[in-house]
Specification:
The protein is mainly α and 253 residues long. The protein has ten helices and no strands. Among the domains are: 113 residues, no CATH class; 60 residues, no CATH class. The longest helix has 32 residues.
Length: 253
């Protein structure tokens, strides 16, 4: 039974905050540029309801399947991380899905599964690179906003991403979660304030973004990283900064 127990032991803040942090991970979507542009480009307001229904129709079973795959891996391939040093266990565990497929699926379906994994990876990667290069290009002086400069910007950003991926020591999952949390914590709270039509001076917005980013890295490397997902405190911290600084600013006036 302990192989399929998905509740960690000895949680510093209890299961409630652990579960809340797990759920809060989904809030990072509001800070992902490649997701935001799809929302911004939606055809009409009524189409939002349809898009929401389609999203949850796929997202809910996908999330359940992802958790189930991890639990099945503990039972079907318990030797996946056997003999692997603790610091390398996360990297070895990333092969769980492929290991399960190799044991229970015929060759043709293994190929389909791997093709799906690579397709999803490339879809996210190219969307992020293009969104990032577009954001950088828009900040350039008007005379530099040429086709060649845009392509060069994309090439530089893609090259930087490749170098970072090849030189990083962490597992792919750790890198992805770190990037997801960093974007969610820097862009998300600022976007929430703007959508609420609250006043947001540029300096305060930058302070909120810096607070979210620092909190992500500090929490991920702190003693409570395994107890609460870093995105929860990293999204709350900028909102606290906004409330405190905003209150102080109004009082000083």
């Amino acid at each position: 039974p302990e192989l399929v127990d998905w509740v960690p032991e000895q949680l510093a803040f209890g299961f409630g905050l652990y579960l809340l942090g797990f759920v809060a991970g989904g809030l990072g979507a509001i800070g992902q540029p490649h997701i935001l542009v799809r929302s911004m480009a939606i055809r009409s307001v009524p189409a939002i309801r349809r898009a929401t229904a389609i999203y949850f129709l796929w997202y809910v079973p996908f999330s359940i399947a992802a958790v189930a795959a991890g639990l099945y891996a503990r039972v079907l391939v318990p030797d996946l991380i056997a003999g692997v040093p603790a610091e390398d266990a996360a990297v070895a565990a990333e092969g769980a899905l492929a290991a399960i497929a190799d044991r229970v699926l015929p060759e043709i379906l293994i190929g389909v599964l791997l093709a799906g994994v690579f397709a999803a990876t490339m879809s996210t990667a190219d969307s992020q690179v293009l969104s990032c290069s577009a954001a950088v290009s828009q900040e350039l002086p008007a005379r530099w906003r040429t086709y060649a400069i845009g392509k060069l910007t994309t090439l530089l950003i893609a090259s930087a991403a490749v170098v970072f991926a090849l030189t990083a020591d962490d597992s792919v999952l750790t890198l992805v979660l770190g990037a997801w949390s960093a974007l969610g914590a820097t862009i998300g709270p600022v976007l929430v304030i703007r959508l609420a039509r609250l006043p947001l001076p540029p300096a305060l917005g930058l302070l909120m973004m810096a607070t979210g980013l620092v909190t992500v890295f500090w929490w991920a490397r702190g003693p409570w990283a395994a107890d609460v997902f870093e995105l929860l405190p990293a999204m709350l911290a900028p909102l606290v900064v906004y409330a405190v600084v905003g209150s102080f600013t109004r009082t000083s006036r």
